[in-house]
Amino acid sequence: MSFGTKLLAASAMVLALSAPLSAADLSAETVVATVNGTNITLGHMAALRAGLPEGYLVLPDEILFDGILQQLIQQTALAQIAETRLTQRDHDMLAVQRLNYLASTMLDEAVSSAVSDEALTAAYEAQYVSAGPVREYNAAHILVATEDEAKAIRAELDAGGDFAAIARLKSTDGAAADGGALGWFTLDVMVEPFADAVAQMEAGQIGGPVQTEYGWHLIKVSETRLANAPTLASVRAELVNKLQNDAVQNRLDQAVAEAEIVESVEGIDKAILKDPALRGE
């Protein structure tokens, strides 16, 4: 083989080595760098990319690829140093982060399979169609801190006092500026003692004092009406959220029910978690 022939062959080999690899030649296990013998793979890079904020994903592919690779190289080099000096706190933190990640994958799986057209239709029919028309209430309230204040205001109202004017003057919540007006609502959106009182009232009636976690309420119901079921499209987001929340709770309940759990906390002062020694400080 002549020198010229050898040169042409060598050039062809260089071109072949530098040619882009096809997707079929690559996998998550493909090694793109090593740091002191530790492999960094395309899978590692893809995982880091998946966790980036949306703003980074608009960068050109070449810049993003190189940036991710350099970040992983830097992190690997630092992590190798850190691994030579791990404390108990470090082991605890890593264990908790691992638990969080693994648990999240299970909940993500439950959420991803929770929503389907069939599930949405069933939830819609159960919550809105089968239940029939829902009664809505247009009401106002006056909220004060103590029962004595509420009773004094009730006496004013019984003597003919103007509800809206008294609400503007004495009510302590954000609705005061509107004369205590709460607008139209269904009972399920109100706290139970308040909702129970409203459910027993008729249009034009004043009720209370009623105590809730927020204080003492005087309530005036102005109107009531039966509302037709909303369309599926209008409540789709609400139903999706409910299906997903239910799926998460069901998965948690199932996991705990199937696990053998032994708690050993008797005799432990629960303030111990504030002890700096537990945090390695």
Q: Brief description of this entry?
A:
By secondary structure, this protein is α+β, with helices and mostly antiparallel strands.
* H/E topology pattern: HEEHHHHEHHEHEEH
CATH topology of the domain at 133-227: Chitinase A, domain 3
Q: What fraction, in percent, of the residue positions are helical?
A: 40-55%
Number of separate strands: 6
Order of neighbouring strands in the sheet with most strands: 4-3-6-5
Mean pLDDT, as a whole number?
90
Measured on Cα atoms, how large is the radius of gyration?
32 Å
Helix count equals 9
The name of the CATH architecture of the domain at 133-227 is Roll
Distance between the termini: 72 Å
- Unreliable segments (pLDDT under 50, ≥5 consecutive)? 1-17
What fraction of the residues are assigned to beta strands by DSSP?
15-25%
Q: Which CATH C-level class of the domain at 133-227 is it?
A: Alpha Beta
Structural class: alpha+beta
The largest sheet is: 4 strands, antiparallel
What is the overall shape?
elongated
Walkthrough of the structure:
The chain is α+β, with helices and mostly antiparallel strands and 281 residues long. Among the domains are: 27-85, Helicase, Ruva Protein, domain 3 (Orthogonal Bundle); 116-132 and 230-245, no CATH class; 133-227, Roll (Chitinase A, domain 3). The chain is 50% helix and 16% strand. It has 9 helices and 6 strands. The strands form 2 sheets. Strands 4-3-6-5 form a 4-stranded antiparallel β-sheet. A hairpin with a 2-residue loop joins strand 5 (206-212) and strand 6. Helix 4 crosses helix 9. The longest helix is centred in the C-terminal third of the chain and has 27 residues, at 232-258. The termini are far apart.
